[in-house]
Amino acid sequence: MDTENSFMGEVLPYPFGSFRDILTALFKQKVKCLVIMLIVLGIAAAYVYNLIPLYEAKASIIVKMGREHIVHPEVGQATQIVKFNEEAAVQSEISILSSRELIRRVVKTLGVEKMYPELLDPSLNLRDPLEVAVSNFSKDLTSTPIKGANVIEITYGNPRPKVAAEALNLLIEFLKEKHLQIYSDPNTSFLSDQLKVYQNQLEASEKELQEFNRKHDLSSPIEDQQKRLLDQRTQLDTSYKLTKNQIQGLQSRILSIEAQMKTIPKEMALSRTETEGTLAKAKADLFELRRKEQNLLTRYTPESFPVKNLRNEIALIETFINEEENQGDRNNSVTSGKNPVYQKLEMDWFGARSELETLEASSQAISLQIEDLDRKLQRLDELNKELMILARHKDAAGQNYNLYLHRVEEAKVSEKMDQLKMSNISVIQHAETPTGRAGRSPNLILILGAILGILAGIGTGLLLEFFEGAYTRPEQAASDLNLPLLASFSQKL
Questions:
Q1: Residues 65, 82 contacting (CB under 8 angstroms)
Q2: In terms of Cα–Cα distance, which of 450, 427, 369, 453 is closest to 35?
Q3: How far apart are CA 395 and CA 202, in angstroms?
Q4: In this predicted structure, what is the pLDDT of residue 84?
Q5: Domains of the chain
Q6: What pLDDT, in 10s, does the model give residues 170-214?
């Protein structure tokens, strides 16, 4: 038993050996324990007394996809590009919300004397109470994004409950305005100026196109004129080929007549009757050539090749008739003269030559007409190219005008929405006046301080008793000396 007591004494020395030792030590150090306990409790009470109560107002907002996230290219087609990232949008709004500029505006609006009147105490000797108030506001402001949602919870603490709610609601209103200032596109005046520029360009291009049509007499579309000219050219080309074929036929005929004329004698013995028959035939041919001359004069000028050739043939026949008539009075005896067959071939040759020259002149005229049509078609092609360029300029100016007209209308609507403070930020819960203070209650702090003081006093008493090293009870000495205790005496001081 003594050995066991000795072992326990070595493991748990006094005053930790038994509950009786603890009570003895605490009773012995009761004054010091009480002082320590009162000191800790006094510190807790002083902290509670000096603690400025904060009333925390809470609000929540949601960030939606809006017109701010639609990108309009400055040039080209009015293609809309949507760029919206929920996490990035929420973080952007938190950055705007916690900016000192926005907080400073709230403090200026409400006033330092309303939000933090203690900062105006002259004894504090603050150089700029406004900046200190802004710093305090920033410190007491918390913005927390809700995971998995584009929602932000905002809290703000202030010693005055109504001020906390009013300041937080005002901060959210200023956030909307700041958001619109940052994301809005204040270029209505620029777009209006560009609209006027493109309107002037459109009017100028239309005027230039009208002047071009008037200058070149384009009352009908160029395509219709080209079609008509191509139809005329097709007809003339057909006539030209037909005339060429006729010319080749006449040339072959002339060569055949010339070959026959070489085989037939030019003169032969003729009777009076034959001569008169030949003369009558020549007069008939002269009459026919005269009629043909009148027909040619309706289509050609007297100086044209067909008319001249025909008149040469007429002159030749007139000469023949004059020669026959100048032979005087003759009897029906046999006389010599031109061979009628040869003369007939000669007449055919002159007729073919005259017709050939007529066809050649007609072919030349058709060729000139075809060349003239080709020049007109080429000119129309050039005019069509110029017209297409002018039309493209007009279409481009019209597209730009319509595009910027649409953008000006959008900008006006956007400005109206900005004036109405319509943004993609919506308030889920407005800040209400808090009914209770934030943080732990003062009573809880005092209770925790009392508990901490009691534990500190007990611990301090036990440690002091442990380091003193004196015996408090006779049993302790008997145990350490391994001697029996015969008697114990107490002395009252």
A1: yes
A2: 453
A3: 8
A4: 56
A5: 2-51+454-481 (no CATH), 55-183 (3.30.1890), 222-405 (1.10.287)
A6: 998 888 888 777 776 656 677 777 778 888 888 888 888 888 888
